[in-house]
Amino acid sequence: MRWVRFAATGFVAFLLVAMGVLTAVGLHDRLAPADLGVVLGSKVYPSGRPSPSLQARLEKTLELYRAGKFRTVMVSGGTGREGWDEAQVMRAWLVARGVPDTAIVVDSQGVDTLATARNASALMRARGFRSAMIVTQYFHVPRARLAMRKCGVAHLSWAHADLFELRDAFSLPREVVGYSVYWAGDCR
């Protein structure tokens, strides 16, 4: 029975350290100029309004676009249970705030982080882009970076959305597992 307690204590210690590392990495933005800004999707409410996490990602994207960090934005997401295409909602939000529609690439097939990375990498090859900047929540930055690198994006920068929620306490342990799965996998 001692070994069970020892193993449980070890697992909890590992989880806490891993969550701390993910947080530290995700809060440290690298704001190098990029050819492409990639904003990852999140929930859209049944009304069609972006959730707070999605809105925070869009606000950060708009701030970076206006600062000239990138000229092209890829909005990436799938269609959620609520029936809204996240990428189209993101496009409309950005256009309503002055980003030209011609500067936005809609990726409605970005159903998860790996799909977004694959799609961004393909778009970059097709357009001759060499660098990308990821915009997402701080806890998601490490896994999104890993996915982009596994899919061949070597020149990468990132920024986290300015939002902290109580639900981050659930998201951090989930990201530890997600990062481990992505680390063991490839870009398929």
Write up what this structure looks like.
With 188 residues, the protein is α/β, with parallel strands linked by helices. It has a single domain (2-184), classed as Rossmann fold. Helices cover 50% and strands 14% of the residues. It contains 6 helices and 5 strands. A 5-stranded parallel β-sheet has the order 3-2-1-4-5. Helix 5 runs parallel beside helix 6 (168-184). It is globular, with a radius of gyration of 17 Å. The relative contact order is 0.18. The model has no long low-confidence stretch (mean pLDDT 90).
Give the key terms.
188 residues, alpha/beta, Rossmann fold, five-stranded parallel β-sheet
How do the strands and helices of this protein lay out in sequence?
Layout: H1 2-27, E1 36-40, H2 52-66, E2 72-76, H3 86-96, E3 104-107, H4 113-127, E4 131-136, H5 141-150, E5 155-160, H6 168-184
Parallel strand pairs: 1-2, 1-4, 2-3, 4-5
Helix pairs in contact: 1-6, 4-5, 5-6
Short description, anyone?
This protein has 188 residues and is of the alpha/beta class.
Q: Give the strand order, joined by hyphens, for the main sheet.
A: 3-2-1-4-5
How far apart the termini lie comes to 41 Å
Strand content: 5-15%
Please identify the top-level CATH class.
Alpha Beta
Number of domains: 1
- Proportion in helices: 40-55%
In CATH, the topology is named: Rossmann fold
Round the Cα radius of gyration to an integer and report it: 17 Å
Can you summarize the main beta sheet? 5 strands, parallel
Q: Give the class from helix and strand content and strand pairing.
A: alpha/beta
Low-confidence stretches: none
Oligomer: single chain
